[in-house]
Specification:
Length: about 400
């Protein structure tokens, strides 16, 4: 930077350019209270009062200087004491303006001298930006690949948990279906034997051998068989009805006819899950529901059934065969709340902090995937909801699903 170019005469017009003329004029009017003129060294009026000076030759002339150099003067007929006061603060104002002007010029020169450096830096920045774009494109491709991999892994986790739930469900339902199937088979075998004996008697009657017919009747005690036959058929019908009901409950739970996202009444999902759980053997377990009317929400009923089944199954396991599980529903403001409460063993703080971690399970090795709550939490979150847990060792646990009635887009 060349300092010599700043070693030049500064004019009064340049100095007051950076000062509010209105404020300067007002300050001079209030201080002098008479007419005045602000002129440069060539007697050019730069600023003056609204009060007219009748005789400029009779006015005092206050010289204005910067660094011992005259830059102009103030013409006024004010008293001497006011002129001295004006001299002091005008000097301060103009000195400040001069320093500001010098600083501005130096800054401008500095900016000007930096222009070439900025151009060089700009070129380097453009080159760096180009490299960044190339790296960004590579990173974006890698991120897309990783996202696809994560989504694929997540689908596999969902499927693994779903298959584990289905396996557990199938084992319980198979046991409940086997019972009526067992006595159906037994009753049908008995009925086949009884029909064969009846056929022997009928053949004897057709052959005209009445004696043989009555002897056969007494031999097989068919009087008792006939009395028992109605009960045998009635029990068989009841067994078939029970199997049909279990299959209907399974179909309702699996949501065969509604396998896409749509308007759902979650109370129907709760009832379907509780019927499925009720079809399985749970000695000493009291299953209860306390449902309030709910508005329909947009969701995949099959996925919500999976969430509810997982929560209720966990609650039943926590009882160790003795206790109660209550599923309740209600509307809370703009949300739907579904609570699954048990009075089982409960959980400590350390366990609570890990229950949503993938592959964490409290079941014996080989009996659980450790994905039930993880998947359930992600399903609920996908509908804009959340899950809350309260638990106390020895007092039980409450899992609450909170879903917005109207999902934000």
């Amino acid at each position: 930077m060349e300092i010599a170019q700043f070693d030049r005469d500064i004019t009064l017009a340049e100095l007051i350019r950076g000062i509010s003329r209105q404020k300067l004029a007002k300050a001079l009017d209030q201080s002098l209270q008479v007419g005045w003129r602000l002129c440069d060294t060539e007697n050019k009026v730069l600023l003056e009062s609204t009060t007219v000076i009748d005789d400029p030759t009779a006015c005092a002339k206050l010289r204005l200087r910067i660094e011992l150099e005259d830059i102009g003067f103030l013409l006024t007929n004010a008293p001497r004491d006011k002129i001295e006061t004006i001299s002091i603060w005008m000097g301060l104002v103009l000195s400040s303006a001069h320093r500001y002007s010098m600083a501005a010029d130096i800054h401008l020169e500095s900016v000007s001298n930096s222009y070439k450096d900025l151009q060089a830096e700009h070129a380097a920045l453009q080159e760096s930006e180009q490299r960044y774009r190339e790296l960004s494109a590579q990173l974006e491709n890698r991120v897309s690949e990783q996202v696809l991999l994560i989504e694929r892994s997540q689908r596999q986790l969902y499927q693994a948990e779903k298959m584990a739930s289905v396996g557990s469900l199938a084992a319980g339902v198979a046991h409940e279906i086997n019972n009526p199937i067992g006595f159906l088979r037994s009753n049908l075998s008995t009925a086949i034997g009884s029909v064969a004996k009846m056929r022997t008697i009928l053949n004897a009657f057709h052959a005209g051998d009445t004696m043989l017919a009555f002897e056969t009747w007494d031999k097989y005690d068919l009087s008792f068989v006939m009395e028992d036959f109605d009960d045998l058929l009635r029990e068989s019908v009841e067994g078939a009805d029970r199997v049909a009901r279990i299959v209907a409950n399974l179909k309702d739970y699996s949501n065969v006819d509604h396998a896409i996202e749509g308007e759902c009444d979650l109370n129907e999902s709760i009832n379907a899950v509780m019927r499925i759980i009720g079809d399985q053997p749970h000695e000493g377990v009291d299953l209860r529901i306390e449902l309030q009317a709910l508005p329909q929400i947009l969701c995949d009923r099959g996925r919500m059934n999976q969430v509810l089944l997982s929560l209720v199954q966990n609650a039943v396991r926590a009882l160790n065969g003795d206790g109660s599980v209550c599923v309740s529903s209600c509307v809370a403001g703009t949300d739907i709340k579904i609570a699954v409460k048990d009075n089982g063993c409960g959980m400590d703080e350390q366990t609570l902090s890990r229950i949503f971690d993938p592959f964490f399970t409290m079941q014996d090795v080989g009996k659980g995937t450790g994905l039930g709550l993880t998947v359930s939490q992600e399903i609920v979150a996908s509908y804009g909801g959340r899950m809350e847990v309260e638990s106390k060792v020895g007092a039980g646990s409450t899992f609450t699903v909170i879903l917005p009635i109207k999902r934000s887009t």
